[in-house]
Design a protein that fits this description.
Layout: E1 8-12, E2 18-23, E3 28-32, E4 36-39, E5 43-49, H1 59-71, E6 77-83, E7 89-94, E8 100-105, E9 113-116, E10 121-125, E11 129-134, H2 138-143, E12 149-154, E13 158-163, E14 167-180, E15 184-187, E16 192-197, H3 201-206, E17 212-225, H4 229-240, H5 245-248, H6 254-260
Antiparallel strand pairs: 1-2, 2-7, 3-6, 3-10, 4-7, 5-6, 8-13, 9-12, 9-15, 10-13, 11-12, 14-17, 15-17, 16-17
Length: about 260
């Protein structure tokens, strides 16, 4: 018998998406604090420490779980939305920045587990367990973008992960895939993850692809994002300084503008 609540949902939007979750009476969805966009009458919410996956968990257990969330940079609290009405009610969640929402049925994922970038979790059916996944390799921790810590999400219900830009799902069959370190969204737990040097010294310095690349290898599914928030901020930052991207990327930079005047 499934331990997670069986929720229905609808993804709304194209470039900036939201997920609308439909709850039967007494069904609950958990979400990151501040993710709620709207909710219908009959939905009640409560802010709690922990994901509620273990109802018998004591205060110390909840405190430990809250502490692990601090390590991932997330709030120590999660919000639980429950339908207390007589019929079906809806609650919707929006992502913190433009991108795509990935619906994943954890019952159809290897080991009922997903490894997710630390800010990728948006919401999930009640009963989903959220913990941390330490990266075992030193190089991955220092240079992997996600650091030593990723989120490990376990359950048998619906999970909703947010990522930037377009999402690509790749199925590896005993293969290796090299990816920009910030572009990994999630992968199944049997996939190996490491960081390797991107190439020769010349390529590393002048190639524009970064010094290190993430290497994913094995058999299973991998999700990749085209525009992580870190890259979006980097691309927009010249405009906030009053310079266009063309000027910022010029070989001469500010000196070139002197000759243009």
């Amino acid at each position: 018998m499934p331990s997670s609540h069986e929720i229905d949902y609808k993804i709304i939007g194209e470039d900036i998406q939201i997920v609308e979750v439909e709850l039967d009476p007494n069904e609950t969805v958990i979400a990151e604090a501040g993710a709620m966009l709207y909710m219908e009458d009959g939905i009640q919410f409560e802010t709690k420490m922990g994901d509620g996956s273990n109802p018998t968990e004591g205060f110390l257990g909840k405190l430990l779980q809250a502490g692990t969330r601090v390590l991932t940079g997330e709030s120590i609290f999660m919000t639980h939305f429950t339908n207390r009405g007589a019929g079906k009610r809806k609650v919707a969640f929006s992502a913190p920045y433009p991108g795509t929402i990935i619906p994943v049925n954890l019952a159809q994922v290897a080991g009922n587990t997903m490894i997710v970038q630390k800010d990728g979790f948006l919401c999930a059916a009640m009963g989903t367990k959220i913990s941390i996944q330490f990266n075992q390799k030193l190089g991955s921790g220092f240079f992997g973008g996600e650091g030593f810590i990723l989120e490990k999400i376990q359950g048998d219900g619906m999970l909703f992960v947010h990522a930037g830009g377009v999402i690509i799902e790749k199925n590896l069959n005993n293969e290796t895939l090299r990816v920009d370190t910030g572009c990994i969204v999630a992968f199944e737990p049997q996939i190996g993850y490491d960081i390797q040097r991107s190439g020769s010294l010349k390529s590393m310095v002048f190639g524009g692809e970064g010094i290190f690349l993430a290497t994913l290898h094995g058999t299973g599914r991998v999700w990749i994002q085209s525009m992580p928030i870190s890259k979006l901020v980097q691309e927009l930052s010249p405009y906030f300084g009053g310079n266009s991207r063309k000027e910022g990327g010029s070989v001469l930079g500010g000196l070139g503008r002197v000759f243009e005047d």
